[in-house]
Design a protein that fits this description.
The protein is mainly alpha-helical. The protein contains 12 helices and no strands. The mean pLDDT is 83.
């Protein structure tokens, strides 16, 4: 039964990577499309290429997550937890895309795995284990704090950008910021590939370890290529429902503020993936940066009702994904 479960986990992980790219491409392109720095077609193609590149650049974060972040029971129980967690996270991702609401694929995945592990423990099996201190400090805390940090940095960056460009004409300022946005759209997609591409790699590596097919100390090349290609393919299809929310329904934004939001969120993804090796939600960082940059204006620009709806989705993501993960594991338990 284990080979069948392993194949199912790998297939669902590939589907999750595709959905991740499809769901999160809006983070890379929303502000650039809104300010007409890039056309929708060019921006999506650019995001796909750099998502692919980013996912192929590094595996350090994925190896950290499998070594110090999460510990799954071996055998069919561990594979069942992974499969149920992926199904729970994917179901929530599809729902939030349909509703046009940005949500964290990382939060959903972690919630799904925790819920499935809890259901396993409820049935008398092994739960998801690991170092609670490392799990909280390196995974949970960054995911919770990153929206606040992104908001504050983007708000302050607008002051700095406005001061530096104070002697230029509005036309020249907008033209320069649109050019910067074109570059930053690719850079953000590169950071997204570095961050989210390694989520899928970590899941597949955990599955290989649970099935006894790997020690988990190195990343097989085929796993890296599999995750990178599917993430890029998902990006090519473009999640325009969420793009419309970020670009038009959340906040009024001009090229300078769009550039500020993209610059801050891009820097955070790179620092998190390369320097600190902590997983950050690209959705949380970009959405918060857009709101922070847009809020730094003389007129009320943030649509409070839409922001509250998005915040409610963020609060519900891990909880709902955990419940779905538990339900899927209970449904799969007779096969384990």
């Amino acid at each position: 039964m284990e080979p069948v479960l392993l194949a199912a986990v790998i297939g669902c992980a590939g589907g999750f990577a595709f959905l991740n790219g499809f769901h999160d491409v809006s983070n890379s392109v929303a502000t650039a499309v809104r300010t007409r720095a890039l056309t929708p077609t060019v921006s999506v193609f650019l995001a796909a290429v750099f998502n692919l590149t980013g996912a192929l650049l590094s595996t350090s974060l994925a190896l950290f997550l499998t070594d110090a972040g999460l510990r799954l029971p071996p055998g069919s129980t561990g594979l069942g937890i992974l499969l149920a967690g992926l199904l729970g996270a994917g179901s929530w991702g599809l729902f939030t895309w349909y509703r046009g609401k940005p949500s964290s694929s990382t939060h959903a995945l972690i919630g799904g795995l925790i819920g499935a592990g809890g259901a396993s423990g409820l049935l008398g099996g092994d739960n998801v284990a690991g170092s609670e201190r490392v799990f909280f400090l390196q995974i949970v805390l960054p995911l919770l704090l990153s929206p606040l940090v992104a908001y504050l940095l983007a708000y302050l960056t607008v002051f700095a950008a406005t001061w530096l460009l104070r002697h230029n004409s509005p036309r020249k300022v907008n033209q320069g910021n649109r050019m910067a946005q074109s570059v930053l759209a690719g850079a953000f997609a590169l950071g997204h590939g570095l961050q989210d591409g390694q989520r899928t790699m970590a899941v597949i590596l955990l599955a290989l370890v649970a099935a006894g097919a790997s020690t988990g100390t190195s990343m097989p090349l085929w796993v890296q290529l599999f995750a990178a290609v599917l993430l890029a393919c998902g990006s090519l299809f473009g999640g325009w429902r969420i793009t419309h929310t970020l670009a038009n329904r959340l906040v009024r934004i001009d090229p300078l503020r769009g550039m500020s939001a993209q610059g801050v969120s891009t820097a955070m993804l790179f620092v998190g993936a390369i320097s600190l090796q902590v997983p950050l939600s690209s959705t949380h960082t970009m959405t918060s940066a857009i709101v922070g940059a847009g809020a730094n204006q003389r007129f009320s620009s943030v649509h409070g009702t839409e922001l509250l709806k998005i915040f409610a989705v963020w609060l519900a993501t891990a909880v709902v994904a955990a419940v779905l993960g538990a339900v899927f594991f209970l449904a799969l338990s007779p096969l384990l």
